[in-house]
Amino acid sequence: MGPVPTLDRRLLFVTGKGGVGKTTVAAALALSLAGQNKRVLIAMCNAKERLSTMLGSDLIGPDVRPVRPNVWAVNIEPERAMEEYGLLTLKSKALYKLLFDNKYVRAFFRAVPGLHEWAMLGKAWWHTTETREDGSLRFDVVIVDAPATGHGLDMLRVPKVITEIVPPGILRRDAEIAWTMFQDPKRSGVVVVTLPEELPVTETLELAEALDRELHMPLARVVVNAVLPRLWDEEERASLETLPAPVAFSLPTEGKSAAETLLATGRTRAVRERVQAESIARLTRGLPLAPVFLPYILGDAATPASIEELSRRLA
Ligand SMILES: Nc1ncnc2c1ncn2[C@@H]1O[C@H](COP(=O)(O)OP(=O)(O)OP(=O)(O)O)[C@@H](O)[C@H]1O
Ligand SMILES: [Mg+2]
């Protein structure tokens, strides 16, 4: 039996190192799922919001709003999410105020490690359970644009910790239900985004290992983002790399002929293509599933047209 296709799961966590293209991939994935008639929610975790630029929508705040046909988005704020959660479980604004608008209680919650992370994750999870008036699900898929690795992993560790240390009660019950779902490859999966470079590949392999060994969370997909098209074959690369390296910190055009500049540029590109090829080969060897590739976008990748182009590659 092969792995469960990414697109059939209800909850997808998009994570990876800072700046590798997590939000870009979350947006492209949302469009490709929406194109298959799924109702998709993108949940950001208290992010500096750039998704609206990518999707060409109005600013995305803490209230769920439609951003494209079949796509909704929200930027979850932990304090707000806590309050919503309190209201949801206590079912009374007066009781909530009594309990939570109290500086001792607030100080207590600030001191509980991971509670803010749980408030955000818990809200994202809750959206997978949300129904419409006719009883059907409000969203078919919730895509969590998780914080960068490190923080992202810490965040995913939280529900497990809550199930282990919090006394029985509503909070622990919900964390247990959510944690069971997070680990279920039929319902959830982690999408790891990386770049075809040495360090990101090493960290991606470590992340895949931690997900498998420590968290027992299913890896749904690895996306290698911003892959350069190949200009040189291996032989051409090798002969370009025999040229002397351009001197660091001097502009390549300074005091050089056009031909020299072209050669220096070609050599730089050859080195990048070799590193890219080696990184992709190492990643592919080390992963339990085949990665998928997204091209490097020349010009601005954070435009609706670019995101649509990337979404077609993911479909
Ligand atoms: N395939 C691509 N080709 C070219 N540029 C890209 C590509 N993917 C992303 N970018 C650009 O790289 C930058 C970082 O992308 P993005 O914001 O999606 O990364 P991120 O992982 O979400 O970052 P952060 O960790 O800050 O949340 C953006 O300017 C984005 O437009
Ligand atoms: Mg981001």
Structural write-up:
The protein has helices spanning 22-34, 51-55, 78-90, 93-100, 103-111, 115-129, 151-165, 170-183, 198-215, 234-241, 258-286, 304-314; strands at 11-16, 40-45, 65-68, 71-76, 141-145, 188-194, 219-227, 292-295. α1 (22-34) crosses α12 (304-314) and α6 (115-129) crosses α7 (151-165). The protein has a single domain (6-229, 289-314), classed as 3-Layer(aba) Sandwich (Rossmann fold). The mean pLDDT is 88. 50% of the residues lie in helices and 15% in strands. The chain starts with 10 loop residues before the first strand and ends with a helix. The chain is an alpha/beta fold. The chain has 12 helices and 8 strands. Adenosine-5'-triphosphate is lined by residues 18-24, 50, 148, 225-226, 294, 296-297, 301-302.
Give structural attributes.
315 residues, Rossmann fold, eight-stranded mixed β-sheet, 8 strands, 50% helix, elongated, binds magnesium ion
Please provide the count of β strands. 8
Strand percentage lies at: 5-15%
Largest sheet: 8 strands, mixed
**Radius of gyration (Å):** 23 Å
Question: What string gives the helices and strands in order?
Answer: EHEHEEHHHHEHHEHEHHEH
Secondary structure tally, helices = 12
Q: Point out poorly predicted stretches.
A: none
Overall structural class, as computed from helix and strand content, comes to: alpha/beta
Which fold does the CATH topology refer to? Answer: Rossmann fold
Q: What small ligands are held by the chains?
A: adenosine-5'-triphosphate, magnesium ion
Q: Biggest sheet, strands in spatial order? A: 3-4-2-5-1-6-7-8
Number of domains: 1
Considering the protein shown, what is the CATH homologous superfamily? P-loop containing nucleotide triphosphate hydrolases
**Any guess at the CATH architecture?**
3-Layer(aba) Sandwich
CATH class: Alpha Beta
Helicity level, as a percent range?
Answer: 40-55%
- Give the overall shape, derived from the CA principal axes: elongated
The pLDDT mean sits at 88
Compute the separation of the termini in Å.
21 Å
